[in-house]
Amino acid sequence: MKKLSIIASGAVASIFMLGSTMVAEAQEQQQQPSPDQQMPATPEGSTVDVDQEELERFANAFLAVQEIQDQSRQEMAEAIEQEGLTIEEYNQMFRQQQQPEAAESEMSPEQQEQFQQADARIDEIEQEAQTEIENAITGEGIELERFEQLWVAIQQDPELQQEVQQILQN
């Protein structure tokens, strides 16, 4: 399927996939500091000041983004299937479209039409999702740029990762 070109698309999958990895890495960093290590595991320049309330708003926005993306993926799958294609067929056709050396003659005119219709609907779904995601983030009182700053900080700071996970689990 097409990648969603939306703010925080990586955030959704990454925070949960990093779950146990984050905890293990944080514990490993705490257990194995080098003797000459004077800087914290996270460089000072990469952290941002964030209070508990802002972290909770981030987590709420994150959950909303995840829900929107899940719904969008479902709608995309349905759009593909409504055109008479499987997701695998669509993906293969999409890859063919992305490779200039790929001969378009490998697709029948009917398949090309099915692909174009599904692709147009996917573009619409992506645009709708982009707007919904931006609204969900700003609806939590966070500017889009700040959301991205927090996301970067959370990726780089195991303690923040744990705090966000705890908020999300409650």
UniProtKB/TrEMBL annotation:
Chain positions covered by the region annotation Disordered: 25-51, 94-120
Output compositional bias ranges, type Low complexity: 27-40
Q: Hey, what's the signal peptide range on this chain?
A: 1-26
Q: What is this protein called?
A: DUF4168 domain-containing protein
- What Pfam families does the database record attribute to this sequence? DUF4168 (PF13767)
- Locations of Polar residues compositional bias? 108-117
Q: Which UniProt keywords apply?
A: Signal
The UniProt entry, under InterPro entries, shows: DUF4168
Q: Show where the DUF4168 domain sits.
A: 37-99, 100-164
Source lineage: Bacteria, Bacillati, Cyanobacteriota, Cyanophyceae, Oscillatoriophycideae
Q: Which residues cross the membrane?
A: none
